[in-house]
Amino acid sequence: MEHIKFQNINIEKDLNLINSLKANKIILQFLKDNNLSIDYIENNAQALNTYLLNLKPCEGCKGLKDCKQSINGKVFKLKYDGILSSVLVPCKFKVQDTIKKAHLKNFVINDMSEKFYDISFENINIDEEVKNKNMDYIAKLPTIVDSTDNLNKGLYLVGKPGVGKSFLAACAANKFAKLKKSVAFVNVPLLSQRIKTNLENNEYKNEVNKIVKADFVVLDDIGAETVTSWFRDDILFNILNERMENNRLTWFTSNEDFKSLKNHYELNNKRVEEKIKGERIMARIKSLSNEINIDAKDRRI
After folding, report:
1. Cβ–Cβ < 8 Å for 249, 215
2. CA angle 21, 24, 30 (to 5 degrees)
3. Strand 183-187 with 84-90, pairing
4. Which of 190, 140, 133, 129 is nearest to 164 (CA)?
5. Which mean pLDDT values do the consecutive 10-residue runs of the chain (301 residues) have?
6. Contact 87, 59 (CB under 8 A)
7. Which residues contact 237 (CB under 8 A, 6 or more apart)?
8. Are the C-beta atoms of 250 and 243 separated by less than 8 Å?
9. Torsions phi, psi of 190, nearest 5?
10. Cα torsion at 60, 65, 68, 72 (round to 10°)?
C-alpha cells in the first residue's frame, strides 16, 4: 500500500508540472514556433521544466553586469529539429554588447579603458558642455573628426588630469574604427614598459610597426613616461617621424603643454641635458598636431 501511495504522489506531481507547463507563455510560444501540439508537453515535461529553471536567473536582469548565469551573457535555448535539445547562446544583452563593440576588431593596439569601448561623441551633452568656460571646442570636435579624412594634422589635447582628454580621444578612435580604419590607441607609459619587457626577443618591433602604419593613432598620456635616450630617439622619434613623413593622422593627450613637454624631452633619465634631441621630437609633434588646451573641471571627482 505504501508503494502504491508513493507512485500516486509522483503521478500527481507530474500532472501538476504538465498543467503548469501548458499554462506557461514561454513554453506555449516554443510549441507555436515549432508547430508542436500541446500534447508534446506530456512526454517532455522534465526537459521543458529544466529549460525554464535555467531561465530563472535571467528574470529581472537589466544587463551583463547583473548576469547571474554561470557563463556571463550566455543562456541555454531550446532547439527542435525532430529531436528536443538545448544549445548555449548569447542573451539579448550579450548580442547588443557584441554589436556595440564590433568596431574593436579594427584596433591593432588597444590600451583604452574598457569603459571607453562603446563611447562616442553622441554620448556628450553638447548643450551642457558649451555652458562652461572655454568648452566651445567640444562642440567642434565631431565636425573636426568628420573632416579629417582630408586632413593630415591631428590634435594635441592638453589639460589637467581628469578633464576628459582620453575620453575625447577615445571617441575619435571609436569613430575611425567604425569607419573600418585601422586604429592604435597607445598609452605611452605602458608602451615604454612593454618595450622594456620585450626588449630581448625583439617582439616590440611588431608593436612599433603597427603604430607606424595604423590609419589613426592616439598617443595617450605622452610626457608621463620616464625618458630614456633610447626610447625617445629610437622608438618615439621614429614613430612620429614615420607618421609625419607618410601623412598619417595622429592625436595626442597630455598633462604637458608643448613648452613643458619640450623640457621633459630635453632631459634623459640620467638628468643629462639633450636640447637638440628634445627640439627634434617636438618638431614632429607640432607638425602632426594642433595644440588644444582643455580648461575644465576634473570629471573624476
Report:
1. yes
2. 90
3. unpaired
4. 129
5. 40 77 92 92 90 88 87 88 89 88 96 93 65 56 61 85 90 93 97 89 91 97 93 95 95 96 87 88 96 77 61
6. no
7. 277, 280, 281, 284
8. yes
9. -65, -40
10. 130
For residue 228, give the amino acid letter: T
Q: Are 282 and 274 spatial neighbours (Cβ–Cβ below 8 Å)?
A: no
Element holding 156 (H helix, E strand):
strand 154-158
CA distance 214 to 29: 49
Largest CA distance in the chain: 102
Q: Is the pTM of this model over 0.85?
A: no
- Contacts for 19-23: CB closer than 8 Å, 24+ residues apart: 21/45, 21/48, 21/49, 21/52
Distance separating alpha carbons of residues 225 and 189, to the nearest angstrom: 4
User: Position of cell 625617445?
Assistant: 232
152 phi and psi, to 5 degrees?
-115, 0
